Amino acid sequence: MTKQNSLQTTLIHAPRQAPQYIETIQPPLFRASTIIFKTTAHLFDRHWTNPYDYSYGTHGTPTTFTLGDNIARIEGGNYCLLAPSGLSAINLVNSTFLSSGHEVWVADNIYGPNLEHLKNLQDRYGIHVKVYNPIDANSFQPTEKTKLIWLEAAGSVTLEFPDLKNLVKKAQQANVLTALDNTWGAGLAFNAFDFSDEHLSVDITVHALTKYPSGGGDILMGSVVTRDQLLHHKLYRMHAIQGISVSGDDTAQIQRSLAHMPLRYEQQSNSAIAVLDWLKQQSQFCQVLHPSDANSAGHLFWQQVCESGKSAGLVSVIFKPEYDLAAIRKFCDSLNLFKLGFSWGGPVSLVMLYDLKQMRELENTHLQQGLLVRFCIGLEDPNDLIQDIQNALKQLE
User: What is the C-alpha to C-alpha distance for residues 311 and 31, in angstroms, rounded to an integer?
Assistant: First the structure.
């Protein structure tokens, strides 16, 4: 007679399990740190470069690989790595490809935390950070020490769309890696891996999945996408060494949101255009910034690359100089539907104020003097958002 295991052991090693594979609309969720190997052959006859290396939770599960495959497909790449945030994904690229003595070029409108991270590397490890004007490809002057250029299309605050074609051409001629922060375009406004008649491509895209892919304003995650397997393996190795990983639950939530991301992106883009048209008529602003507007810097570059006319739901305004910081703070505090907060891509519209004098290193003749407010358009009715801005502007009279 076979001895029965104790109840305690049976609870851990259940003798019966329901069939593991059924077809559902959403893929199954795998939560895992430890992954069980069936045999020692499965343990040793594997390699970390295998497309789906199931060895430990940090390296990937069916849940994380599924989301990664879908993000790569959306952006036009072949390989994707996930990170706990957009900034973590940016830092993965920097730490993989930059060493002491290397030179990295960043746009003057670069995402602030990326610049802060690079300057930290400069101070501690001798990385040299150079700044270029994103709408003037001639300002990018690579040297033999230049290893990486960061691109941002469009800039997340002043929304200049860069001269992407000429910047990428120049980088390729100098054998410089191109990394694009693709959060604004989300893989929907244009294909960063094939964005011209000449089939130009960046080498790497970084995407804050926190924004449009998540869509709820409640999950932090980032991605790094490439087409080149060698680049992917270099990134993957650093990804493993640094112990970068993401939550299975968070991954499943973003996967669930991908199906309606194009619909949300289009609605928020259209709403932003409606708000933009109204903002341009208001006397309190000396400049309204959006890539689709013919008066905005980089408009022609946006037309070249974003042939579908798509754009994210971001609009920035620069108040006339007579409005000081106290007035702009009063304006922001008077908004009701717009909530004061960073990020974008969620259902709730957001507002944030900036002092460009503290953010730029180069002279920007295309920008008017004054304090800037950025509107991140959510899923509310654009007419209600316009009314909200109008009510807040009345507080300045």
Answer: 35
Q: Which stretch of DSSP H or E encloses residue 318?
A: strand 314-319
Q: For residue 98, what are the CA distances in angstroms to 103, 179, 307?
A: 8, 12, 34
Q: Would the pTM of this model clear 0.70, i.e. be above it? A: yes
Angle 375-164-82 (CA atoms, 0-180°, nearest 5)? 70
For residue 290, the cross-strand partners are: none
In a structure prediction context, what are the per-residue pLDDT tens digits for the chain, which is 397 residues long? Answer: 457 788 788 778 887 777 777 888 888 888 988 888 888 988 888 888 888 888 887 888 999 999 999 999 999 999 999 999 999 999 999 999 999 999 999 999 999 899 999 999 999 999 999 999 999 999 999 999 999 999 999 998 999 999 999 999 999 999 999 999 999 999 999 999 999 889 999 999 999 999 999 999 999 999 999 999 999 999 999 999 999 999 999 999 999 999 999 999 999 999 999 999 999 999 999 999 999 999 998 999 999 999 888 899 999 999 999 999 999 999 999 999 999 999 999 999 999 999 887 777 777 778 888 899 999 999 999 999 999 999 999 998 8
Alpha helices in 46-133 (DSSP H): 62-75, 86-97, 112-125
- The tokens for 224 are 């790094």
